[in-house]
Amino acid sequence: MNDTVLKFLKEKGYKEVSSKYYDFINLWESWWRDEVAFHKYHDQSGTERKLYRLGMAKRIAEDWASILFTERDEIVTEADTKKKTEANNEYLTKQLKVLKVYKDLPTAIEKAMYSGTAGAIVRVKNATVDKQGRLSANKRTKLDIIYVGASQIIPLRVEHGSIIDVAIVSENIEGDKKEYYIEIHELKYKSKLEQDVYEISNTYIDEKGKEIDKKGIAKNYTINSNVPLFSILKPAIANAIDGNYNIVNGLGFSVYGSAIDQLKACDICWNNFVMDFYLGGKKVFYNKKIVNKKTVQVKDSKGNVREEQVDMYPDDIMKQQWRTYGDEMQNLKDDPAITEYNPALRVEEDTQGIQFALNVLGFKVGLGTGYYEFNGHSIVTATQYVGDRQDLISNANKHRKNVDEFVCGIGKAILLLGRILFKKPVTEDCIVKITDKDGFMVDTETAKAEFRQDIAQGIRQEWEYRVKFYGEDEATAKAMVANREIENIEGEE
């Protein structure tokens, strides 16, 4: 977070925000980008080199995003009447499509997983603002939504861990100069309405913290509602930094924040695997006695030309493979003219090391020890992973509740603006939720119970139960249940 922005907010009377926590956020983001100081080292000549790396931080964030929201999931509302619910769903479905929420939501979840916090801000474009700061729509008015990571979010007021007032910061380049756009959402009490309402202010400042006047930007406006136009998402894990520093101020903790050592271990193991192949090429040593020479002209730094004798390799393309040794005066009877060196590759040991590192990493980030499988040449996600699935499902359900709240905030903001600005017959006083079409996050016992209920209701057949939960083929399953009651199936494990 830029100190100029923090200083500006402090001068405007807002609570001083520590910049120390953003150092952690920058670290997590650098791992996500796969560019950290740990990957750099220098060889004996002083040349900078980099480790070969797996880039697992980004993969972890991507995989959590894929688990927590899929293309099969659906965002729906539930109001107090059927008519309101239908109107809500019709309007919300249309807006979600226009705003590309289904497409962009996985990216927002990925931001939260790697940076600890993500935000969504629903904005109004081309609206009219009167002197009292009230919005009204015209033919050009439409909604927009942006997603930001933790580095752009400054909590201004936090209650019980929830961000109530917030500043969203964006960095822009105008010509050759930087400027910062600060969007502040504050919940304030309005005596005329006898309720708290959100007020939004927009400010641009330059690199020195001086305000910039921008045309076409509403400096202040209100929607006369306590429903925020922003929504915050954090991973459902306790913030380990909070116990050591009083600097968190409502921001979340990266899903791999406690697994940095494990990320390093994966990269070390992978680097060793690659270097074994890189350095393990066959070498052919041949005695200088049999080396042919050729004369070449060499020009020094001053432009002087001199002749120099150089070795001629049996195959210049394979220069890396051939090496000379010995003394030209050496008797070839005492030492062979050509000697081969074929180093053994430690493929099995390297593979085991990588797999162990991945298992520990998967455990530390809540995916389970069997989620990543190294097959010798790539990393694959265990899409049908069932090894330690109960732990994965438990963790996924905790994260999913936070995603539900995040989506609920987005949905309510859209419905609120639909009612106030566009005069649609919708209400934000409802439940917005994600319906789980995949069933991935249902644990095995719950899935079995639901399957048995479907059998009892005649929706499914008994043999289907054995196919799904015992892995039998259809013919075997039908033969096994031909003369048995459903109670007998229920008792099996």
Task: Tag the structure with descriptive keywords.
3 domains; alpha+beta; 6-stranded antiparallel sheet; 3-stranded antiparallel sheet; single chain; 493 residues; flat; 12 helices
Can you describe what's shown?
This protein has helices spanning 3-11, 20-32, 56-68, 82-98, 101-115, 260-279, 347-364, 389-420, 444-456, 462-470, 474-480, 486-490, and strands at residues 40-42, 48-50, 74-78, 118-125, 128-129, 135-136, 142-149, 153-159, 162-174, 177-190, 195-206, 211-212, 220-222, 230-233, 283-287, 292-299, 305-312, 322-325, 338-341, 372-374, 379-381, 431-435. It has 493 residues and is of the alpha+beta class. Strands 8, 9, 10, 11, 12 and 13 form a 6-stranded antiparallel sheet that branches. The chain has a 3-stranded antiparallel sheet with strand order 7-4-14. A 3-stranded mixed sheet has the order 18-15-19, with no helix packed on it. α4 crosses α8 (389-420), α6 runs antiparallel to α7 and α10 crosses α11 (474-480). The model is unreliable at 485-493 (pLDDT under 50).
